[in-house]
Automatic annotation (TrEMBL):
<protein>
    <submittedName>
        <fullName>CAP domain-containing protein</fullName>
    </submittedName>
</protein>
<feature type="signal peptide">
    <location>
        <begin position="1"/>
        <end position="19"/>
    </location>
</feature>
<keyword id="KW-0732">Signal</keyword>
<dbReference type="Pfam" id="PF00188">
    <property type="entry name" value="CAP"/>
</dbReference>
<dbReference type="InterPro" id="IPR035940">
    <property type="entry name" value="CAP_sf"/>
</dbReference>
<feature type="domain" description="SCP">
    <location>
        <begin position="53"/>
        <end position="153"/>
    </location>
</feature>
<dbReference type="InterPro" id="IPR014044">
    <property type="entry name" value="CAP_dom"/>
</dbReference>
C-alpha cells in the first residue's frame, strides 16, 4: 500500500494553469536550476519562507524576484478556502471562474499575465514548494519571466499560488 501515495502524486500535484496572452521562455537560455537546493526553513512563516525560497530559485535562474501582493494573496486564500470548504480541487471555481477572473475580482488589474499553481494534501509549505519545484509545469509558472508579484493561500490542505505581471 506504500505505492498509493506515489500513484496519487501526479494527481495531487497536477494543478497547474497558465493564462498568458503570449508564450514565454521560463528560464534563460543555457540556464538550469536545481530544485533540490531550495529549502524553506521550518522556523520561517509560511508566506515569508515561501517567498524567500521562490526568489532564491528565480535568482538562480537569472530572474528578478517577485514581491508579495495583497490582491493576489486574497484571491489565492479565498480560492484555497473555497476548495477546502466544498471538497474540490480544480482550476475552475464552483462558479466557473478562472484564475484571471478571480485575480481581477480581488482587485488585480495587470496586463493579463496570470498563472496559478494548486496542490492538495501537502502537510507544509516546504512540501508544497518542493512538489511544485519538481513539476515542470508548476516550476515554469514559478520561473515565468513576465511575472512580478505573487500571492499564496492555504486552507485545509489546499494550496494556491497565483503569480501575475502586476496588480
Amino acid at each position: 500500500m506504500r505505492l498509493v501515495p506515489w500513484l496519487l502524486a501526479p494527481w495531487l500535484l497536477s494543478g497547474c494553469l497558465m493564462a498568458d496572452p503570449t508564450p514565454r521562455n521560463p528560464a534563460p537560455a543555457g540556464g538550469s536550476v536545481s530544485s533540490s537546493s531550495e529549502t524553506i526553513p521550518a522556523s520561517a512563516s509560511s508566506v515569508a519562507g515561501f517567498g524567500a525560497a521562490l526568489n532564491r530559485m528565480r535568482a538562480q535562474a537569472g530572474l528578478e524576484g517577485l514581491r508579495e501582493d495583497g490582491h493576489l494573496k486574497r484571491a489565492a486564500q479565498a480560492f484555497a478556502e473555497d476548495m477546502a470548504a466544498n471538497g474540490y480541487h480544480s482550476h475552475h471555481g464552483r462558479d466557473g471562474s478562472t484564475v484571471v477572473e478571480r485575480a481581477r475580482r480581488a482587485g488585480c488589474g495587470g496586463r493579463g499575465y496570470v498563472a496559478e499553481n494548486i496542490a492538495w494534501g501537502q502537510d507544509s509549505v516546504q512540501d508544497t514548494f518542493a512538489g511544485w519545484s519538481a513539476s515542470a509545469g508548476h516550476r515554469a509558472n514559478m520561473l515565468g519571466r513576465n511575472y512580478g508579484v505573487y500571492g499564496l493561500g492555504q486552507a485545509g490542505g489546499m494550496w494556491v499560488l497565483v503569480v501575475a505581471d502586476g496588480c
